[in-house]
Write a structure and sequence with these properties.
Chain lengths: 401, 401
C-alpha cells in the first residue's frame, strides 16, 4: 500500500537516534536521565513537535540493537527476511560490501594457554592498533582455503571480520565461542549436511590462525561467531525513494545502515564531531541523514545516570547546529530504552518526537518519557516511524479519492 | 518468537481481575465508578505502576466473559482454537476434567406445563441446594444411554453440567432452549451427518430427565445448551513456564482458568475471602495467582453505581493484604467494561496497571479510566498483557543481538 503512495521530492530529513535513551523511574531513580537533564533546546523542539513513545519490537520484548534499528528504519524486526547475523552486520559495518553467497564471520581475538584452554575471550581487550596489525599479519598468511577466498579485516579492538567467498558455502555452522574461559574453543560444527564443507574450511582456518599467531602474547587465537549470510533486505531507496546517509561511529549501527542501503561516512564519536560530519555532507541529492549517538546506551548499561545525563545535555547543546541546517523533518528518538535502574536494554517504550512544518504540535512540553506519554502519537510500533517521516516530508500521496 | 525468549524463574505474579470494572461518563453519570470511589490504596499503587487501557478483543467489540478472560491470559480470542463452548467452560469450572472426545452440555433446569410448554426457563431460580439434590436424583437414574456414559453434576442454582463420554460423539448439535417461554423446547438436531447418533442420545436423555423429574414442582425439565467439546488450548505452563493458580468463585471463570491449565482453589465470594485464599496458597512452586472479583460486573449490569463503588472500595481496602505478600509483579485490571450507564458489557478500553520493580512508573495518579489514559502503556490489546507480565517478572530474554 505504502509503496503506491510514495512520491519523490528533495526535502531533507535528519534522523537523530540516541541509543538506549529511554529510562524508567524506579527505586533509587526518582527521575529518568531525560527528566533530570537540563535540555532547553530539546524541550523547545518538543513544544514544536508531535511526540509519542515507540515500542521497538513487541510489548514486553527487550530488543538487541540490530532489530531495534531495523524497526526504526521501517523493517519489521520479526520478519526473518530482516534478520541479519552478527557476522554480516560487523563486516558490513566495517565498510565491506558482501556478495549474496559470501559467508561472514565475526571474529574475537582471544588468549589460549599452551594446553588449548581459553584464558581471555577478548585477548586482554587489545588496543585497536594491535587488532589492525594482527589482521594485516593474518591477511598476508591466509588468502585461500580449499579454493575458497578468505578476506580478513579489522573491526574494533579485539573484534575483526572474516569473509569466505566461493561456491557451495553455507552459514549453518555453530559458533566456536564457549562463552566461558577455562574451556577449549568449540568445533565449528555443521548444522546441516550441506554445511559440512564449510565446517571443514572454518576448522582449517582456525588452525591456520593459531599457527600464524602462535608467537603473539595476547591475541594467539580467535573465536568464530555470528556465522551468517547477507539477508535480502530491500534497499532504503527502493523502498522509500530516499537516499540515506549514515553518520555512526560504531560498526553495528554502520552495518545495519549499510544493509539498508545507506551510504556510510567516517566520523568521530562525540555529538559535536558527528553533527559536524552531518553538516559537511548535508545537501545535494541526499535526503535522509541518520545520526547515531552511542554513549547514552553505554552509560545506561553502566547504571551511570550522571554520565547519561551529561551526554543528553551535550546533544542538547548541539541541537541548534542541526536546526541551522533547516531540515524539513527532524526526528529525535532512541532505538530502545536502557534504564540506569536496570543496567541493560529494556522493553519500555522509547521517547519519540518529530518536527516539521506540518507535524501537528501537541501538548508535550519536554523531550522525556512522561511528557512523550502525553503526545499525539501515543504508544506506537517503532516500525511505523518511517511512514510518519515520509508523511512529514511530503512524500505520501492521499490514499483513495 | 516469544517462546524462544522465555526463561524460568521463581518470581511471583498476582493478577487481580475486577470483572467489568471499566465504565464511562455519560448523561446521568458524571463520573465512572472508579472515578467516584475512594481508593487510596489503588491510587498509591497507580503512582508506583505503569498504567494504560486494554482493548479486550478489537476496537468497538463488546466481549463476553469467556473471550475477555482468554485475552487476559494471552490467548487470542479471535483464534478459533481458543473458542471454548459454554458447556465445556461450565463443566470444567465445576472441577471436571474433560477428555478430548467428551461432549459437554450446559443444562438449565426449567419449568414445563403438562402440555410441554415452557413456563420458566430457570425453574424459578431454585436455590443451589435444590440444584444439587436434583442432580443427585438424575445421576442415580441416568448412567448410560446406548453405550455412552452420562455424567451429571451441579454447577450453580438452576444451572448444571452434563458430560457424554463414549466413542463417535459429536458436539455439532443445536441447543434445545428456545430462548422464550410459551414455547416447547426445541429438538437437539444434528447439524452434520456424523452427529446424528449424538442427537438421538441427547433426545433420549431429555426424555429420561423429564420422566425422572416428573414429580418436581419447579425443575421438571432441562434445556440443553452450549453443546461443545474441549478446545486444544495450550496449557499456561507450556506456554509461559508459569504454574498458575485460580482463585475464583464463579464457574465460568474457574472454567476458563482450568482450560488454560491453572489449578483451581475453592474460595468464598467476598474480596476478603478471596484474598485470604490467595494468602493460604501463596508461595511454593506456584508463580501466577489469578483472582477474580465478580461483583463489579454484576452491579454494572444492574446499573447500580453505588453498589459498584462499594465493591471497588472493598477491594481497595484489601490491597495492602496483597502487597503484604510482596509479589514481584502485581496487575490490577478488568476483563472488559460494564458501564452502569449501559447496564451491559461494553467495548470501552479497560483500566490496567502493572507494578514491579522495573515497571517504569508513569504519570497516572489514580486507578481510573481518565488517569489510565495518561499512562505509559497507552491503549493496547489485552492479549499482550501476558507479555508485559513476563517482562516485568524477568522471564523474557533479549531479542536479537
Amino acid at each position: 500500500m505504502l509503496r503506491d503512495l510514495i512520491v519523490e521530492n528533495d526535502s531533507k530529513i535528519i534522523f537523530l537516534v540516541l541509543d538506549g535513551v529511554g529510562g524508567i523511574r524506579a527505586p533509587g531513580f526518582p527521575q529518568t536521565a531525560l527528566e533530570a537533564a537540563r535540555t532547553p533546546n530539546l524541550d523547545r523542539m518538543a513544544s514544536e513537535s508531535a511526540c509519542g513513545r515507540s515500542v521497538p519490537v513487541s510489548a514486553g520484548v527487550t530488543p538487541g540493537s540490530g532489530p531495534a534499528h531495523f524497526a526504526l528504519f521501517g523493517y519489521d524486526p520479526l520478519d526473518p527476511a530482516n534478520d541479519a547475523g552478527r557476522g554480516v552486520v560487523e563486516v558490513t559495518g566495517a565498510g565491506f560490501d558482501l556478495l549474496d553467497d559470501d559467508v561472514a564471520i565475526r571474529g574475537n581475538f582471544a588468549t589460549m594457554s599452551k594446553e588449548g584452554i581459553l584464558t581471555d575471550r577478548r585477548a586482554g581487550r587489545i588496543p585497536h592498533e594491535e587488532g589492525v596489525r594482527i589482521c594485516r599479519k593474518l591477511s598476508e598468511a591466509i588468502r585461500e582455503i580449499d579454493g575458497v577466498q578468505v578476506i580478513i579485516m579489522p573491526v574494533r579492538e579485539y573484534r575483526f571480520g572474516i569473509v569466505l567467498r566461493g561456491e557451495g558455502l553455507s552459514p549453518e555452522i555453530d559458533e566456536t565461542d564457549p562463552q566461558l574461559t577455562g574451556m577449549k574453543p568449540l568445533f565449528p560444527a555443521a548444522r546441516v549436511k550441506a554445511a559440512e564443507r564449510t565446517s571443514r574450511i572454518i576448522a582449517k582456518l582456525v588452525k591456520m590462525i593459531d599457527e600464524t599467531l602462535s608467537g603473539e602474547e595476547k591475541a594467539n587465537t580467535a573465536l568464530m561467531r555470528g556465522i551468517s549470510r547477507k539477508p535480502s533486505i530491500e534497499p532504503f531507496f527502493d523502498r522509500y525513494r530516499l537516499r540515506g546517509a549514515a553518520v555512526a561511529a560504531y560498526p553495528l549501527y554502520r552495518g545495519v545502515a549499510r544493509l539498508c542501503g545507506m551510504d556510510l561516512f567516517d566520523t568521530g564519536f562525540s555529538p559535536a564531531e558527528e553533527f559536524e560530519t552531518v553538516r559537511s555532507i548535508y545537501g545535494g541529492d541526499r535526503h535522509f541523514f541518520f545520526i547515531h549517538i552511542k554513549k547514552t546506551d553505554s552509560y545506561g548499561e553502566d547504571g551511570n545516570i550522571e554520565g547519561k545525563i551529561k551526554v543528553i545535555e551535550e546533544v542538547d547543546a548541539r541541537i541548534p547546529a542541526l536546526l541551522d541546517l533547516e531540515p524539513d523533518v527532524l526526528v529525535v528518538t532512541g532505538d530502545h530504552s536502557t534504564p540506569c535502574a536496570m543496567k541493560s536494554h529494556s522493553w519500555h517504550p522509547v521517547p519519540f518526537m518529530i518536527r516539521s512544518r506540518n507535524c501537528g504540535r501537541d501538548a508535550s512540553a519536554r523531550f522525556c518519557e512522561s511528557e512523550c506519554d502525553r503526545g499525539s502519537h501515543g504508544i506506537f510500533p517503532a516500525k511505523s516511524i518511517m511512514e510518519m517521516v515520509l508523511a512529514n516530508s511530503g512524500r505520501l500521496k492521499k490514499f483513495g479519492a
